[in-house]
Amino acid sequence: MEYIRLCDKGMERRQAEMKRGMLIMVMVGLLALLAGCVPEKSPLVGVWHKDNAGELPVESLEIKFNDVGKYDAVKNFVFGKHDYYGYGPSGTYAIADNHLVFTVTGASGYASDDSYSDLYQSGMREAYPDRTQRYYEIDGDTLYLYESEEKRETPGVFLTGTFHRGEIKKCSLYEAYYRYD
Q1: Sign of CA dihedral 67, 123, 141, 47
Q2: pLDDT grade, residue 70 (50/70/90)?
Q3: Are 151 and 136 within 8 A, CB to CB?
């Protein structure tokens, strides 16, 4: 009888160890599945800018995309040291096939002094469409936004052109004129 009891206890211990091992394997499997379910960060997330390459007045456009589908776009005009204004829309964006869909939910503006208040106020009242679609490509640190599938530049059309990754204030020209001493 003693021998059977010892065998039963040994068997119970092995069964408990097997259950523990199975539980650990299930947990490891679930963790692996959860790690695979984390959405990949969009390559758009971050700040992109374009400018007219060093001529005064400097005109630029900066777009900030965040990872929850929101964007801010600001068109900047710089005329000299501490002499600037800017305005632009903000809202949500979505990626659909090979294009971006921008939806405007608001706008903002600023100026270095009151002499530009009429300009940026009128800029904020510009009729941004409620919904804008742009075809896009990303090549390294360059973002291309096109108005049509033909991928042609359309100068003067808002939210189109060649953008570079990074904030405009990192450019040496802006350091010389835009909000910096």
Answers
A1: negative
A2: very high
A3: no
